[in-house]
Write a structure and sequence with these properties.
The chain is an all-alpha fold. Helix content is about 55%, strand content about 0%.
């Protein structure tokens, strides 16, 4: 955490939750809490392992992270 009011502290998390809402939650019917939990877990897996990101040279976050190590 940085200074009070420093908007960049949460930028990564805000980006993830924005994508979660826009790409997944608002597009799918969520009949039960259990269904929602399973969907969020599936999206986290998709976001980290399958979703290609242009800032990572069209690699998934996991692929990009493995290149750096």
């Amino acid at each position: 955490m940085g200074d009070v009011g420093a908007c960049w502290d949460n930028a990564v998390v805000e980006r993830f939750f924005g994508s979660l809402k826009h790409d997944w939650i608002f597009k799918l019917h969520q009949p039960t809490r259990e269904h929602m939990i399973n969907d969020v877990c599936a999206y986290i897996k998709h976001y980290n392992f399958d979703r290609l990101q242009s800032l990572n040279n069209s690699l998934s976050p996991i692929q990009h992270e493995n290149l750096e190590n």
